[in-house]
């Protein structure tokens, strides 16, 4: 992300509302502490630093995900970055169950170019973006195709987490490459055979029947 925001790393900012104290530690996590004398007062994590939210090719917020479990999901928090005279956590809400919204004010985002994504990228990724712009201008790709390329660029830069589907696709591509030659195929087959034997032995130890087939 924007290098000038890294000076916030290692610092924490708190906000007290009613009986709750919220604490935001940029690039780390968000926590909530119930300030009561009840025996089961809640104190836990509302999200861990995960990825950026990018809109119109601008950083608009930080997603803190995979916090403490809440019903059937994990708590998560979106932190909105807005211009302010000093660094402070200004507002906290819970727009939907277990999803929190924080507003963080900082002078570090007051410059109109302070949250642009393009300057934070490597030269190679900037070139890839330039090429996508040209393709869109020449009408060789659609708006949707352009957005897909940008998403890939942001994922490659580590600004967004790759979706599970993308990870599966990468894995399948990797496997395809692994089996390019007979030597590689033989080596992989040997490793898989040994793995199957270990798993069969393990199942046998636990008295679980193994149903294989002749083409294993």
From TrEMBL:
It is found in: Golgi apparatus; Secreted. One of its GO terms (molecular function) is transferase activity. Gene3D superfamilies: Mannose-6-phosphate receptor binding domain. Residues 117-216 form the DMAP1-binding domain. Pfam families: PRKCSH. InterPro entries: DMAP1-bd, Gtb1-like, Man6P_isomerase_rcpt-bd_dom_sf, MRH_dom, OS9-like_dom. Keywords: Disulfide bond, Glycoprotein, Golgi apparatus, Secreted, Signal, Transferase. Its main location: Golgi. Residues 10-112 form the MRH domain. GO terms for cellular component: extracellular region; Golgi apparatus. Homodimer; disulfide-linked. Hexamer of two alpha (GNPTAB), two beta (GNPTAB) and two gamma (GNPTG) subunits; disulfide-linked. The alpha and/or the beta subunits of the enzyme constitute the catalytic subunits. Non-catalytic subunit of the N-acetylglucosamine-1-phosphotransferase complex, an enzyme that catalyzes the formation of mannose 6-phosphate (M6P) markers on high mannose type oligosaccharides in the Golgi apparatus. Binds and presents the high mannose glycans of the acceptor to the catalytic alpha and beta subunits (GNPTAB). Enhances the rate of N-acetylglucosamine-1-phosphate transfer to the oligosaccharides of acid hydrolase acceptors. This is N-acetylglucosamine-1-phosphotransferase subunit gamma. It comes from Regulus satrapa (Golden-crowned kinglet).
């Amino acid at each position: 992300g924007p290098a000038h925001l890294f000076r916030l790393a290692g610092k924490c900012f708190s906000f007290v509302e009613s009986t709750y104290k919220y604490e935001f530690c940029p690039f780390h996590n968000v926590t909530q502490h119930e300030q009561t004398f009840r025996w089961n007062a809640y104190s836990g994590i509302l999200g861990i630093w995960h990825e950026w939210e990018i809109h119109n090719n601008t950083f608009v917020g930080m997603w803190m995900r995979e916090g403490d479990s809440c019903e059937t999901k994990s708590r998560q928090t979106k932190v909105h970055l807005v211009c302010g005279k000093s660094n402070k956590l200004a507002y906290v809400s819970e727009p939907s169950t277990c999803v929190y919204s924080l507003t963080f004010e900082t002078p570090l985002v007051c410059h109109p170019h302070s949250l642009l994504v393009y300057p934070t990228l490597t030269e190679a990724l900037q070139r890839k973006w330039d090429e996508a712009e040209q393709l869109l201008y020449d009408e060789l790709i659609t708006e949707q195709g352009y957005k897909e390329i940008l998403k890939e660029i942001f994922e490659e830069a580590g600004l967004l987490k790759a979706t599970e589907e993308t990870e599966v696709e990468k894995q399948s591509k990797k496997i395809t490459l692994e089996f390019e030659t007979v030597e590689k195929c033989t080596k992989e087959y040997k490793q898989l055979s040994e793995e199957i034997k270990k798993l069969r032995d393990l199942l046998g130890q636990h008295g679980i029947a193994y149903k294989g087939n002749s083409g294993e």
